[in-house]
Amino acid sequence: MTHTVSVTRKTLRRLSLTMAASALALAAVAPAQAAENGKFRLGIVTFLSGGAAGPFGVPSANAAKVVIDQLNAGALPAPYATKGINGAEIEMVLIDENGGATKQVEEFRNLVQRQKVDAVVGYISSGDCLAVSPVAEELGAMTVFYDCGTSRLFVENKAPKFVFRTGLDAAVDNIGAARYLAATRPNTTRYAGVQQNYSWGQDSWADFTAAMKQTLPKADAVESQMPKLFQGQYGAEISAVSVKRPEIVHSSLWGGDMEAFVLQASARGLLDDATAILTCGESALERYQGQAPNGTIVGARGPFGAFAPQNALNTWFTGVYQNAYQMAPTYPASKMAQAILGLKHAAEKAAKAPGEVPAPAAIAAAFKGANFESVSGTVQMSRADGHQALQGISYGEYHFDAKTKKAELKNVKSFSGSCVTPPDGTEAQDWIKAGFPGAKCE
Amino acid sequence: MNSIYAVLIDGTIYASWLFLVAAGLTVIYGVMRILNMAHGSFYAIGAYAAASMVGWYFNGDGAALPVWGSYLMLVVCALAAGLVVGLVIERGLLRLMYGRDEILMVIITYALLLILEDGMKMVWGVDPYMAYQPYAAMGRSVLGGLKVSNYDLALIVVSLVVGGGLWAWLERTNTGKVLRAVIHDREVAMAMGVNVALMFTLTFVLGTTLGALAGALTAPAISVAPGLGVEVIVLAFAVVVVGGLGSIEGAAAGALLVGLARAAAVHYAPELELFVIYGVMSLVLAVRPQGLFGRTLVRKI
User: Fold this and answer.
1) Distance (Å, rounded) from C-alpha B151 to C-alpha B149?
2) Chain A residue numbers touching B140 (CB-CB < 8 A)
3) ∠ CA A418-A424-A427 to the nearest 5 degrees?
4) Could you tell me which CATH class the domain A171-300+402-433 is placed in?
5) Chain B: nearest CA to A193, how far in angstroms?
6) Per CATH, which fold does A37-168+309-390 belong to?
7) pLDDT, tens digit, 9 for 90 and up, residues A320-335
8) pLDDT score recorded for residue B56
9) Chain B residues touching A58 at Cβ < 8 A
């Protein structure tokens, strides 16, 4: 009896050793092959599950898929007509951003060290960006953040080398919102806010109230509500805001929370008496179906989605996206396309021969301070020592035509990048409080 | 405008919702001694079923169809979802686990919650669903200057009916009497010829249906998105623990207490809002560890 058991154990041990060894061998071989197959391996990280997947992550992943397919087919208009990136076919490695910053750091290391990607494009959550940024610098991995909005990114990463951001700082959203209100509703005297109770919501409200003190000094913040993330029901919050009779309700809610809030606030009559200004509102443009009252002010965190300008690249992108997914691209999709195009621009500038995949340091050197064409117009990487994009922002009013069931934007106003972005080395709050020194508004 | 008045209205509306969510959880615990973590998933399944059916109902030439049909749809969805899911889980899984440790049951139902969460993502995807028509169609009333959605007011009535119905069923019917015997002493009830297995199935399906009903009735007011169930289960637990595990009156009292406390916090001290529910819970538990209406169990050896 004992004998049999010991034999079984020995066999088991041998078996597991063999399995471990073969797994190791596989792990060692697979990435090496991939890295040397002449393709450009591109890690894409975005939310594929969790609350941010539906409104942001999935449109972004969809955009990445369609852009990469088209790039590999060489179907883009100039200046991106070369196949893939510098002639090398792009191979996408798609990773789910869900699971928190610690997990994302592991996933990032895995992408760079085991999967041997040539660059990573991704990250919606500011927490993930802040955690990944030092690791990217440490590993020397070319990394492009496409959406996360934290102002702290280049405050904490003071001398960035490999980290770039093609999306805008969240402060821009709220400075832009305050400027839009000053331009279109100069008589506003009472405003309120509803934000999610975490850094995104709190920072948004702090930036917005500070900016309102400058642009509309006569307006008072009469109420601030900070419900929990994913709360979904805002009955009490809506009452608390209603009794203060604001004219404007500012909100940085996103995804399901934003849709639920708009639905409930409009059913409760809050949005009959007050106009909502939703900094992420454009992401649900196709989904409100008239549930947001006409005149609701929406933003897209930059000149993206429905706010993107008319140009050859945007016409191409809207067309292929619409063909593939039967809907117009929302802002997260545009932002993803922008990040990939920026990377392609930099890699091709860095490459010495066609078909070559340049080293991360070469791509980073070419990306720094670059001006590249994108679906949102020309992007200047001119902030944070050439690592942060400088672009303008637009806001507009949502209008839904019940007959055609189509939403459109009216009264759109755009503010140039230097009008809403603090200069290098100045923190957003300080810049706002000082009265936007050096801002150039057109 | 009077804030106290607004607190009362908001608090009552929120309490009615909390009670709907918590009722199924407390019924299952009361009879079966299972702390059912998967209750959140039943809520979410109800919400998804309702949202997709209402969406389908109004799709196409939605204008032609009467709105009342969608209310019917909500209830039918909840009943169907609760019945199917409840039966499958009770007969297929929990039946095999009866008599095990209560802690083990928590772990099993937690596993079930995780599985169902991912299962729902496979069926419904990650895009949020909206089924606003039943909510928007009811319009609103002005109560003392405060605009309130009629749908929310109707929910108060529904939760009163559900609570009253549950109470009457437990206290006034024969089945209820048998069920109370099972609650009191499972073994003696079995010895007296009570079909405990049948009672368990009945209770579990009832609990599941109540969870699904809460979800289905909430769906029109919210955007139904992944993770819905997990958010709800924590709140439901707080309510049930405050009221006393397994007690219907307790769930009602707990819901009212938590609902009013939260509404007061939102109006007077918004920064305390996150804390207030757990504040109430810890206060109650400090004074009455078994909850407001909880029974202290004599431990049998």
Assistant:
1) 5
2) 267-269
3) 95
4) alpha beta
5) 12
6) Rossmann fold (3.40.50)
7) 999 999 999 999 999 9
8) 87
9) 126-127
